[in-house]
Every structure is written in structure tokens, then in C-alpha cells.
Amino acid sequence: MNNIRNFCIIAHIDHGKSTLADRLLQMTGTISEREMQEQVLDDMDLERERGITIKSHAIKIDYKRPNGEVYNFNLIDTPGHVDFAYEVSRALKACEGAILVVDATQGIEAQTISNLYQAIEQNLEIIPVLNKIDLPSSDPEGVGQQIVDLIGCEFEEILTVSGKTGEGVPELLEAIVERVPGPAQEVDKPLRALIFDSVFNTYRGSVAYVRVMQGVLRKGDLFKFMANKEEYNAEEIGYLRMNYQPTKELKAGEVGYVIGSVKSLQDVRVGDTITTVKDGATTPIPGYQEAKPMVFSGIYPTSSEDFEDLRSALEKLQLNDASLTYEPETSKALGFGFRAGFLGLLHMEIVQERLDREFDIDIITTVPNVKYEVKLEEGKTISVDNPSQMPDVGKIDTIFEPYIKASIITPADFIGPIMKLCQERRGIYINQMFMQNNRVEITYELPMAEVVFDFYDKLKSGTRGYASLDYEFIEYRKGDLVRLDILLNAEQVDALSSITHREKAYYQGRRVCAKLKELIPRQQFEVAVQAAIGSRIIARDSIRALRKDVTAKCYGGDISRKRKLLEKQKEGKKRMKQVGAVEIPQEAFLAVLSMDEDDR
Amino acid sequence: MSGLYIHIPFCKQACSYCDFYFVTRQNEKQNFVDQLISEIRSKKDSEFNKEKIKTIYFGGGTPSLLSPLQIENIMQEIEQVFDLDLKEVTLEMNPDDVTSDYLRGLKEAGITRSSMGVQSFDENLLRFMNRAHSREEALACLDILSNSGMDSFTVDLIYGNPGQTPEMLEKDIDTLLGFDPPHVSAYSLTIEPRTRLGKQLELGRILEPEDDKVAVHFDLVVDKLGAAGIKQYEVSNYARTGHEAVHNSAYWSHENYLGFGPGAHSFWWNEDKSSARRWSNEPDLKKYLSGSGNQFFEEEHLTLSDLAEERIMLGLRTVVGIDIEALKSEYGHDFGEKHRKYISEKESEGKLKRENSRVYLTREGLKISDAIVLDLIS
Fold first, then answer.
1. Total tally of structural domains belonging to chain B
2. Prediction ipTM score
3. Number of A:B CB contacts under 8 A?
4. pTM above 0.90, yes or no
5. For residues B76 and B82, what is the distance between their CA atoms, to the nearest angstrom?
């Protein structure tokens, strides 16, 4: 009897995936009440707060049917954000079925659709589930019809559950057994195990989470990663329970972990194939890709003494997040720091926030940018992922920028604001499709550079949080782009250089100059604030010299007060950034770097 | 030699800019004087009366709300406790309290110098500051004061007020000069957070004085008073030669002083001059009257390097400036290469001058001395 069922849950943020997963674990006795922590699968604080799963995990569930039969479920969790589309595709690859969870009070969202299509493409059996049916505002009829339209199932096939109360969960467990096909159990073939995730353990090195697609991996086997040919000994293999449960072998169809003294997470690449060194497979499982950073940003410590701490923090983060790349970078204005590459915007935000929370390092990040392909006059093409490295105007023939296809699902009321936003961001309208429940899917092609900054926030705020976004890279296209420099007393502030569309450069230059004028305190000399394209000044402002600042009264107790103030100012001065002779407070940098697109 | 500061915490009403400690109830004045006397008495035979007292300063609050007799009683107690060699005994007063009888009484009680809080002669500005007196009262009282026979007197002005034009300020100065004051303290308006103006600033009802405008006022004060022979000797203080405030100058050169009354600060060097401490009484009249306010409320120990920074800050506010040699010998402070270079730079910019080991700021430098001091200690 094939009693293995490998499946994942596809859901939008807030649609109750984690709560439902908890319920599955609880009702099958996989974890006890005592072990029950809210939303067990999300074990990082950050994930719990955001209500999204950043990194996928997996867990083995023993399910005893009412008729007494015992099944082994492997629930493979998928990351729920647009930046991790590739990770999602690998997790799906490890499954035969997917539970599509849709919030019956809200309807289906863009991200869900894109993951759902991936699942359908990979021939997964879809079990549609309406969640939160306990809520009075739920609309099982309307939302159910949406699902029917989307996947072409029968209305009757849709299950209704409440992750909160547990209603409908026993039926769901049965449906998993009945509808999800068991995996192929080709144990006689050469080993091919798909890595769908990896984590770093301080004591044991990198741990690969795998789905054995064919063959058998035994403890002690010499194995290799097919992408980089590195060979290791399978020191320990086992099943993923609440803890690791060692075993002797992992057979085709099973899900588990492999530990092999792999020091670097860089070796354990999601999507790669593990095979045995002896009698191994000759071809890997198709679909492997190197993680390609799409968004770049400079990360600098607020105070220069923290540089080494920042380096070691990034190292540690990378151990658990192979898609994060970084290399040292020096800025005249911000000192020593790193240029980091991220899969997307959320990924960047997560890294920044973890640096702050887990490592307590204050950082300044530069405005995120994409990677440009620049064709030079001399004929050669270079990649530029840092605005300050963009060659001078005279040397450039053409700049190409990445474009994405964005699909946005929104209640129809918000079509206007969304189209306005996309137009402002140089979007090219493709089409719109009306769905059930008065919802619309709008598709635009957009320069990625216009999306990386605050597009998502704007989209959310313009639609009272209702719109959802999914995007994929399509191609590089020619763009009328320029490098906009900011100068203080004729000295370029490299950290504030940006690449922008020519038409937007003037407005943006004026705005940045005005902001700096507002935030840079008067110095003992006049400071010229300028914005320039090449050698052409397109905006200017000036900060007049300080004329009078002296404290009026300084007697008795004033003296202590004044000294304490001086101590504080001294500390503040240490954190000032210097461009030429001009001292720029941290706040001015942060304010300019966080100016939203409307301000820029 | 040291000084005594006596804080008299009573006021008729709250001036809108003032953040000194005061109360507006008047019924506890005698109790306060009694308590003050016992606080002074508690210092008898202590480490603090090994030095002779050179100056006494009655500040507030409004010391002129006390009667000459009450001042006399306080003075008598001071004589009992301390060894005196008085050069100056100042008392702050408001125009609405002053009569010739009152001044005579003070003189008999031992006051040698009056400090008159005029602030302005402009009725509108007086209202803005919520002063208790009128222009007429100010004029009348200055008349009395200039004929009082006190050794010296000083008048306080405030400039850089919202809505105050240079012409208005000029009028105030001209009016004041008509009384031939030997000493003037002219302060640019500072809006402190816990004052009525601070509130108004927070609510956006008034704007912080603009530094360019205040700089013009500053120049005007320095020029006009200077032309009348009343020369600037500290950022906010101007005097005819020989009339510089002795008590206040002692603050700026780190001389010892003891403070009495709620909220009063004290400063005292350790015996070996390697460190000092500054402490204050709690600014709370009720506690003070119960006797418990007369204990260290806040106290800080100042290392020689703390003191050096203070000395640089205080010194550069005066026309005398700082003496690099004295900083080295008394405070063990040495300017490093960076700061020496900075001093040369400021000299060439005309913000600072050097005379042998003495460094002092020019008028342009003085106006931005907060920035220069910060650079010199960072």
C-alpha cells in the first residue's frame, strides 16, 4: 500500500494557512497541546508578526484514518511572498498535492493565483478549501464560485473548514488520503533527491531538506550535490518531526533531512539534486536555478565601529538565507559598508529588519535599485548594480532596464487609483479581467526600478489594503535613463546618486535638494546643494552660513545643562557623515533615502 | 574666595520665557526666610567656610518680594556663619517693587548692587513676556535706581523677540542709555520647553527666533552699548570698565560657590583641585520648608577633563577667552593637532584671535561660539 502523501498549502497572507496547519498537527496528535505554540510552522518572530512564512519548512504527520489505516503525511510549507517564487516552485516539486486555502471572507489573491498556476503546471492534485467559514462575513457561495471559475472544479469538491474551530478538518484529512496520489516509489533507480530547503545549524552545519524522487539514500552513503559536484558523507539522515528523527534510510517518495558536515549553506542550493557518488544518477532533476538577486542596496553601519559586527551579522544571515548576496563597498559619504543583493523588496526588508532585531545593529540603507545593462559607446556591455558606478553620460550608448509583468487583483472600486499608480510608474497597460465577487485582475508591464521602491506600500495604501500583487521578470528593455547626482559644495554625495527616468530627474532633483536644505543644519560656511545630470546642474539650493547659535544664559546650574548638551552633541557629531567639509546628520540621510516616490 | 547664591522662589506671576524655579503664592515668605536661615546655619563650621566669601547674589524668582528686614535677617545669618570679605552683594528686583524707601532699606541691609529686570520698554513686548510691570513703572524705577547711591546697578534686557524689529530694539537701548547704566545684561530670547512660550512654540503659535535676525539684534546691542562705553565682556553681559559683575564672572572661571534655597546650585572643588562637584537643592518649596529639600537633589562629580571642557566653553563666551597654558597647568588639557589646526583656521576666518597663549573669539566667532566650542571638544 502506498501510504505516503506529500502536500503543501497554497494560501495568501492572512488567509489562515498557519492556523490551519496548526490544526492539522494538533488533530493528528503530531504535537501535544503543551507543545502547541501559536502557528508552530512560523518560528521566527518576524514571520509571526507579519503573518507570513518566509522560509519553508516541512513536517511529517502520522495520520490514523477512522478505519484504522495509518498514513504518512509530509506537509511542506511554502513561502508566501512574491520574492520567493523560485523557492515555492521547488517546494511544489516535492509534492503530489496542494491544499488551496482561500479566505471565505476575502476571496482569492494575486499571489495565490500565481502559486496555484505553478501547482497546476506541475500536475499537483488541488484540494480547494474555503477557510474562516466560522466568520459571519464569510461568503462561501461567491468565493466558492471564484474557485470553480479558476480551477474548473465542481463546486461540491470544495471543502469548507475553520482553522480556528477545527470544523471541517477531519474531512480535509480524509480528502488528502483520497484525492492526493501517493508518490512514485521507484526505489530501484539511482538516487535523485530534490533539495527544497536548507537551514544552518551552528553545531551540525548545513542541513538539507529533501524529497527523495527516486532511489534510496542510506546513512553513511557518500553523496554529492549535482550542481557543484561537492561530495559529502551522509552522517545523519532522518525524518522531519517537531525535532529531527534519525533513520537508516530515506526511500523514494519520502521526505526528510540530510546532514553531512556541510560547512557552507552556499553548497546546499535549493533546487539542486543529491545523488550517490557510487552508481549515482547522471542527470539532475530539471528546474534548478541559481538564486539571482534582483534588487540591490548599500547597507552601512550607522557608526563606523560597527562595520565588523555588520559583516559577521551578514555572514550569519547568509548561513540561513543562501539567496542573500553581499560584497564590501566603500562610500565617500557613508564609509565602509556592503552592497547587498536581494530576491526582491520584501526579502530586502526582512534582511534589514533582522539586522536590527536579531543583531541590534543600526544601519543606513541606500535607496534600492535594480541591475542595469549598459551598452557603452565602445561597444561592450556592462552590468551596473550601483548607481554611483554608472559610467559618465558621454560613454553610454544605451541603458537597458529590467521589466516585470505585474498582476494586481483588487476590488473593482480601486481600479482607478491602481491604474493611476501604474501609469505614474511608467507602466504599460496589458489588460484587465473581471472575476467573481466584484474583483478584477489588472495586468501591467512595469520597469522593475519603479516597483522596487515603495510601489507595494502605495498599492496597499491606495486600496485600503485590499489589492494583492504578483510579479515576474520578463526582459530587459531600453530606457531613457540618467544618473542623478547630488552635490554638496560641488562634492558628489555618492550614497545619494540614483538612476532615474530623464523626465522624472528634474522634479526629483529639486525635491532632494529641498529636503537636504531643510535637514542639514547650518554650517559655519554657506553650503550649495545641487542636483546634476553629468556636468549639468538641474536643481540648486543653498544652506546659508550659521550666523548665531550662542546660548544666552550660562550661570550656576546652566553650566551643567550646557555641558550635558555638549556631550550629547559630541555623540551626535560622531555619527555625522562628512562630505568634503560639510557635516550631514544621519537623519538627513535617512530622510532623503526614505523619501517616497511622490517626494522624489 | 567664594560666592553665595540665594534663591528666592517667589513671583507675582509667571513670565512667559522663564524656566527658573518659582511659585506665585506669597503666603509662605516668612516661613521660607526662616528655613533659608537654618539652611545657611547648617553650613557653620563646615568645609565650605574655610574660604572667605567675596560675593553674594540674591536671585530668583523675585528677591524684591522680600522686605528689607527679611533681607537683613538673611544677611545677618550669613555674617554669623561665614567669613566675609565682600566685594559685591547683588539683589535682583522687578520695577513694580522698587521705591526709594525700599532701596534705602536694602542698602542698609548690605546690598551694594541692584539687578533690575526691565526686559523691554515696549508695552506690547512686556505683555508678550507676561511681565508684571509697565513701561512707566520701569522708567520710574530706573530713575530712582540711578539716584539711589548704590555702588552699581545692572539692567536686564531681552532681544530677538518675535515681532521685534531692530528699530524697536534700538528704541529700548536708547531709552535705557538715558539712565546711564553701569552694567547691562542683554539676552537673546531663548524659548525653553517648560515655559508658556515653549508651549506656544509646540502648538505652532509662535516661531523660534530666526538666527539671522537675532544676529542683527546682537550686533546692534554690541555696537550701541559699546558706543556708550558699555563694553561687551561676555556673550550677554556689558559693563563700563570696573563694573563687570564679580559674582557671575566667578561662575565662568570655576570659582567655588554655594547655593541656598530650592533649586539652587552649588559648585565646589575638591581640596587637591583634581576634581569638583556640582549639586543642587530640589526645586520644591514645600519640601524645602519641611526641611527635606535641603539635601542633595542632583549631584555630579566632574573630572578634570569634564572641567576642562566646561572651562573652554565658559572661557570662549568671554572677551578674555581661554589661556592654553592655564588649561594645561590647571586642567591638564592639551589641544591636539586637529584642534590646533582648527584654531588656526578660525583665526584666518576672522572668528578667533590669539595673543600669546590666550585664545579668544571675535564678535563673529562669539555669535557662533556654541558651534566652535563643540568643534574644539569633539
1. 2
2. 0.93
3. 95
4. no
5. 10
